[in-house]
């Protein structure tokens, strides 16, 4: 049997993709409403019925799922210096597909503990100190976390000299405390892979059950990861390929939603220009960032503030008043879709602004230092100017008639030369909306997943 | 194990990109048994402080070669106090001011700014190592 079913339990919809791994084709896709509150199987069955209407009845040899249902995997990251271990912990959590509820540096105080309790994270990642470095703060923070009054799984990924002590302290109040390698073993050395893996295994053991996703267990073999982790995995596969199937090389993925915009990059991001010194924390090869203030509906007003009326108006070639009027409309009614040419233009411009700003925050920046010998440059973050492929995924982009116009926001612009955005990328669209599914399929059949993505993710 | 070594933060401050002395000092302190957290060139004050906090370093060695030392180095002590590093050892050396100003004057100026030791351009790294071991009681 060559049929595999891949499920994405999303926040609103449960999306399913049936693939034939022998013929390497998508047999069909369908969706139902996500029903975590009652029984997750209701929405899934609805989707399967819809699928079978198109494909006829199918039998599956394997069923895999990913989930961003019930708010996604909610995490809090705790570190010492905000730009160092706290940032490293945040990146590990983002890479694991989490939704970051808060990032905390230095000694936690009582107010912050109260705040964390209210944020209701499902996993807390506790870092702090390089190996052999600061010991006091991570121990203090472990002690503070025991006063949360809540039993939340904690992953300890800090100074190895005191990690066992931190674990011991936390175990006084928490049932699940897992230790893994330090996210920053040495200053400015990023080591987020072990933490990512650990987050995933805690997700599997604990969160799947807590979210009621285990009700799908009789039908689904495994809900293996949070959806963004599946997309990241797919992006990595598409970029690197496998031993038998070549990849596309360095790439970026943009996923615009109603509330947030996610950007992924698979690239080293080393300087491409001469006379450049790298500064700051090293960047993960596979990097994910999420912008909570850039989105098309729930975040429309926030986007308007962040991008400014002028930027959106310029993109649309309209007046700022037109833009403002439309933003107010969609924020008030999130189901609203453009009804005329002007609104259509604003909609595209908003998408382009989401892409542009989210990519600007994702990529590195170049700062010029003037010396008597001419200028020298300092680069912080990834130089993605040589990235040749930008993939668009997610409902907003793939359901749009001109997805390429939206994605063009990802490209380098002369008005912001310090932003190291792709200079002349080509744009691909995940038309069938299969990226998350391919990330799942890649767990078992990586070659097939790469080939299918190359076939189905096409030029926009 | 390297983790038990005393850590020192080293870097060239400000917009200064003279890299050679930095490598020599890195080598000298590493050979003397310290773990050097080397930030390289073009280092803002903030990064010296952050590095020292995270690694629990016992001293910060600041270099300035290109003549703007006085401007770049001012305020680092205050920043250390502000960040909880308090009286961590601060050494500074290189070509701290432009041209051939009387060193005694330069010395007292930097001491006033809160540096524990201030070095002349011709200083041998070995002497700095001896001073640091003394100051740390090693
Ligand atoms: C090579 C060089 C450059 C190269 C640097 C290449 C590189 N990436 O390293 C280039 C050409 C880029 C350059 C540029 C400039 N340079 Co230049 N450069 C030199 C030169 C010739 C040698 C520096 C060197 O490597 N020395 C060898 C190392 C081993 O010695 P060191 O750096 O002094 O370090 C030792 C000690 O000072 C001490 N030390 C250093 N730091 C510290 C810190 C602590 C805590 C301690 C305890 C000790 C210590 O220990 C080190 C090891 O023994 C010097 C002149 C000279 N002979 O020193 C000028 C010199 C440093 N440069 C100078 C200047 C002015 C500049 C420029 C501003 C432009 C110009 N007019 O030349 C630019 C600045 C660029 C910038 N943004 O930083 C002046 C500085 C004047 C001043 N301070 O009064 C110097 C002194 C030349 C001069 N006499 O005019 N320079």
UniProtKB/TrEMBL annotation, chain A:
<protein>
    <recommendedName>
        <fullName>MutL protein</fullName>
    </recommendedName>
</protein>
<dbReference type="InterPro" id="IPR043129">
    <property type="entry name" value="ATPase_NBD"/>
</dbReference>
<dbReference type="Pfam" id="PF13941">
    <property type="entry name" value="MutL"/>
</dbReference>
<dbReference type="InterPro" id="IPR006230">
    <property type="entry name" value="MutL"/>
</dbReference>
UniProtKB/TrEMBL annotation, chain B:
<dbReference type="InterPro" id="IPR006158">
    <property type="entry name" value="Cobalamin-bd"/>
</dbReference>
<dbReference type="InterPro" id="IPR006394">
    <property type="entry name" value="GlmS"/>
</dbReference>
<protein>
    <recommendedName>
        <fullName>Glutamate mutase sigma subunit</fullName>
        <ecNumber>5.4.99.1</ecNumber>
    </recommendedName>
</protein>
<dbReference type="GO" id="GO:0046872">
    <property type="term" value="F:metal ion binding"/>
</dbReference>
<keyword id="KW-0846">Cobalamin</keyword>
<comment type="similarity">
    <text>Belongs to the methylaspartate mutase GlmS subunit family.</text>
</comment>
<dbReference type="GO" id="GO:0031419">
    <property type="term" value="F:cobalamin binding"/>
</dbReference>
<keyword id="KW-0479">Metal-binding</keyword>
<comment type="function">
    <text>Catalyzes the carbon skeleton rearrangement of L-glutamate to L-threo-3-methylaspartate ((2S,3S)-3-methylaspartate).</text>
</comment>
<dbReference type="Pfam" id="PF02310">
    <property type="entry name" value="B12-binding"/>
</dbReference>
<dbReference type="InterPro" id="IPR006159">
    <property type="entry name" value="Acid_CoA_mut_C"/>
</dbReference>
<dbReference type="InterPro" id="IPR036724">
    <property type="entry name" value="Cobalamin-bd_sf"/>
</dbReference>
<feature type="binding site" description="axial binding residue">
    <location>
        <position position="18"/>
    </location>
    <ligand>
        <name>adenosylcob(III)alamin</name>
    </ligand>
</feature>
<comment type="pathway">
    <text>Amino-acid degradation; L-glutamate degradation via mesaconate pathway; acetate and pyruvate from L-glutamate: step 1/4.</text>
</comment>
<keyword id="KW-0170">Cobalt</keyword>
<comment type="subunit">
    <text>Heterotetramer composed of 2 epsilon subunits (GlmE) and 2 sigma subunits (GlmS). GlmE exists as a homodimer and GlmS as a monomer.</text>
</comment>
<dbReference type="GO" id="GO:0019670">
    <property type="term" value="P:anaerobic L-glutamate catabolic process"/>
</dbReference>
<feature type="binding site">
    <location>
        <begin position="95"/>
        <end position="99"/>
    </location>
    <ligand>
        <name>adenosylcob(III)alamin</name>
    </ligand>
</feature>
<feature type="domain" description="B12-binding">
    <location>
        <begin position="5"/>
        <end position="138"/>
    </location>
</feature>
<keyword id="KW-0413">Isomerase</keyword>
<dbReference type="GO" id="GO:0050097">
    <property type="term" value="F:methylaspartate mutase activity"/>
</dbReference>
<feature type="binding site">
    <location>
        <begin position="15"/>
        <end position="19"/>
    </location>
    <ligand>
        <name>adenosylcob(III)alamin</name>
    </ligand>
</feature>
């Amino acid at each position: 049997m060559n049929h595999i079913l891949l499920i994405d339990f999303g926040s609103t919809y449960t999306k399913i993709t049936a693939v034939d791994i022998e013929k390497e084709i998508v047999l069909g896709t369908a969706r139902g409403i996500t029903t975590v509150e009652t029984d997750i199987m209701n929405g899934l069955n609805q989707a399967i019925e819809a699928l079978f209407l198109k494909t006829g009845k199918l039998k599956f040899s394997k069923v895999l799922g990913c989930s961003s249902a019930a708010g996604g995997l909610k995490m809090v990251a705790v570190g010492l210096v905000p730009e160092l271990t706290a940032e490293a912990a945040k990146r590990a959590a983002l890479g694991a597909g989490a939704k970051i509820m808060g990032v905390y540096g230095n000694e936690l105080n009582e107010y912050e503990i109260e705040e964390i309790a209210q944020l209701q994270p499902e996993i807390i990642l506790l870092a702090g100190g390089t190996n052999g470095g600061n010991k006091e703060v991570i121990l203090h923070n472990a002690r503070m976390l025991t006063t949360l009054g809540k039993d939340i799984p904690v992953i300890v990924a800090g100074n190895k000299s005191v990690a066992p002590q931190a674990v011991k302290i936390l175990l006084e109040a928490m049932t699940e405390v897992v230790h893994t390698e330090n996210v920053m073993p040495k200053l400015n050395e990023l080591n987020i892979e072990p933490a990512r893996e650990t987050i995933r295994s805690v997700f599997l053991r604990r969160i799947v059950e807590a979210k009621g996703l285990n009700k799908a267990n009789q039908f689904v073999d495994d809900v293996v990861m949070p959806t963004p982790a599946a997309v990241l995995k797919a992006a990595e596969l598409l970029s690197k390929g496998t031993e038998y199937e070549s990849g596309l090389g360095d790439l970026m993925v943009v996923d615009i939603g109603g509330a947030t915009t996610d950007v992924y990059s698979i690239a080293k991001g080393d300087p491409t220009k001469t006379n450049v010194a790298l500064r700051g924390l090293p960047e993960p090869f596979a990097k994910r960032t999420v912008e909570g203030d850039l989105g098309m509906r729930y975040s429309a007003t926030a986007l308007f503030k962040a991008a400014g009326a002028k930027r959106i108006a310029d993109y649309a070639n309209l007046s700022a008043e037109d833009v403002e009027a439309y933003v107010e409309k969609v924020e008030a009614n999130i189901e609203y879709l453009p009804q005329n040419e002007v609104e259509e233009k604003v909609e595209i411009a908003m998408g382009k602004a989401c892409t542009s700003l989210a990519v600007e925050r994702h990529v590195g920046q170049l700062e010029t230092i003037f010396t008597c010998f001419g200028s020298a440059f300092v680069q912080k973050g990834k130089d993605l100017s040589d990235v040749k492929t930008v993939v668009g995924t997610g409902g907003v982009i793939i359901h749009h008639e001109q997805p390429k116009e939206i994605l063009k926001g990802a490209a380098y612009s002369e008005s912001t030369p310090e932003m190291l955005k792709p200079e002349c990328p080509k744009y691909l669209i995940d038309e069938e909306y299969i990226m998350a599914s391919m990330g799942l399929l890649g767990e078992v059949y990586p070659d097939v997943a790469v080939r299918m993505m190359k076939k189905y993710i096409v030029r926009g | 194990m390297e983790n038990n070594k005393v850590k020192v933060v080293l870097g060239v401050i400000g917009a200064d990109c003279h890299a050679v002395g930095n490598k020599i000092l890195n080598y000298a302190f590493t050979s003397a048994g310290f773990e050097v957290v080397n930030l390289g060139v073009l280092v803002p004050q903030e990064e010296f402080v952050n590095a020292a906090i995270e690694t629990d370093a016992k001293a910060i060695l600041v270099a300035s070669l290109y003549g703007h030392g006085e401007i770049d180095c001012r305020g680092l002590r205050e920043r250390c106090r502000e960040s909880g590093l308090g009286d961590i050892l601060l050494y500074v050396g290189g070509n701290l001011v432009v041209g051939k100003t009387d060193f005694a004057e330069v010395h007292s100026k930097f001491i006033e700014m809160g540096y524990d030791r201030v070095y002349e351009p011709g200083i041998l790294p070995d002497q700095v190592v001896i001073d640091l071991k003394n100051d740390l009681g090693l």
